[in-house]
């Protein structure tokens, strides 16, 4: 990841986040080109020494500045749709995890490779205040994960910035995302929806292990 990009984003640990960073860099290049071009014409117009009152229209120019922005939008739309569809691709998933939001804790349920259900509450004491939980969500890296998110009470938001996932947990609705970790580690997130008085007490702690380490922990 570029150095300047690390000023704004956490280091990518999933294919989804990598796609989001690539799209960000790509769209910023297009926007920079647009800003330079528009700035040049504005400056040229302001510094011009004459203005021709006889010119009231220019069909070719009007057609150009109508078609060109449309082409630039198409250059942004297609990569954006590709990234969006990749985030929701479920055919590549080897394991499913159901995330249920409660006031004020998370419940995780594994499907597919194993059947397991855990509840994750924030710990009263820890090294990282408001970010440590008693039961971590453990997942293997290199394995496609389908994450299904919903809520029992109010709207929450399951968010982990390092993997590029942010999905609303809405009562009575199942939202789904796909991710694939490319290296192990520990990653932290929080509920990013203003869901009530104890909104800040819903941390998400995720541990990404090797496949062997994952099964040794879970079995």
TrEMBL record:
InterPro entries on file: CcO_II (IPR045187), CcO_II-like_C (IPR002429), Copper_CuA (IPR001505), Cupredoxin (IPR008972), Cyt_c_oxidase_su2_TM_dom (IPR011759), Cyt_c_oxidase_su2_TM_sf (IPR036257)
Domain Cytochrome oxidase subunit II transmembrane region profile intervals: 1-91
Entries under PANTHER family matching the protein: CYTOCHROME C OXIDASE SUBUNIT 2 (PTHR22888:SF9), CYTOCHROME C OXIDASE, SUBUNIT II (PTHR22888)
Assembly, per entry: Component of the cytochrome c oxidase (complex IV, CIV), a multisubunit enzyme composed of a catalytic core of 3 subunits and several supernumerary subunits. The complex exists as a monomer or a dimer and forms supercomplexes (SCs) in the inner mitochondrial membrane with ubiquinol-cytochrome c oxidoreductase (cytochrome b-c1 complex, complex III, CIII).
Compartment(s) of residence: Mitochondrion inner membrane
Cofactor remark from the record: Binds a copper A center.
Protein name as it appears in the record: Cytochrome c oxidase subunit 2
Bilayer topology: Multi-pass membrane protein
GO MF entry, a single one: cytochrome-c oxidase activity
Transmembrane segments: 20-42, 63-81
Catalytic reaction equation(s): 4 Fe(II)-[cytochrome c] + O2 + 8 H(+)(in) = 4 Fe(III)-[cytochrome c] + 2 H2O + 4 H(+)(out)
């Amino acid at each position: 990841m570029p150095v300047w990009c690390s000023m704004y984003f956490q280091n990518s640990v999933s294919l989804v986040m990598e796609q989001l960073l690539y799209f960000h860099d790509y769209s910023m290049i297009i926007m920079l080109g647009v800003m330079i071009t528009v700035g040049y014409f504005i400056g040229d117009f302001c510094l011009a020494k004459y203005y021709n009152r006889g010119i009231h229209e220019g069909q070719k120019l009007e057609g150009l500045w109508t078609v060109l922005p449309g082409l630039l939008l198409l250059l942004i739309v297609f990569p954006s749709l590709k990234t969006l569809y990749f985030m929701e691709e479920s055919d590549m998933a080897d394991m499913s995890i159901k995330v249920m939001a409660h006031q004020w804790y998370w419940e995780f349920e594994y499907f597919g490779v194993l059947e397991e259900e855990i509840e994750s509450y924030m710990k009263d004491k820890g090294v990282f205040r408001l970010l440590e939980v008693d039961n971590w969500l453990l997942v293997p890296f290199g394995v496609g994960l389908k994450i299904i998110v919903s809520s029992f009470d109010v709207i929450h938001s399951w968010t982990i910035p390092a993997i590029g996932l942010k999905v609303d947990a809405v009562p009575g609705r199942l939202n789904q995302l796909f991710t694939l970790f490319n290296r192990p580690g520990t990653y932290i997130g929080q509920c990013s929806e203003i869901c009530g008085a104890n909104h800040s007490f819903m941390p998400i702690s995720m541990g990404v292990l090797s496949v062997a380490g994952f099964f040794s922990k879970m079995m």
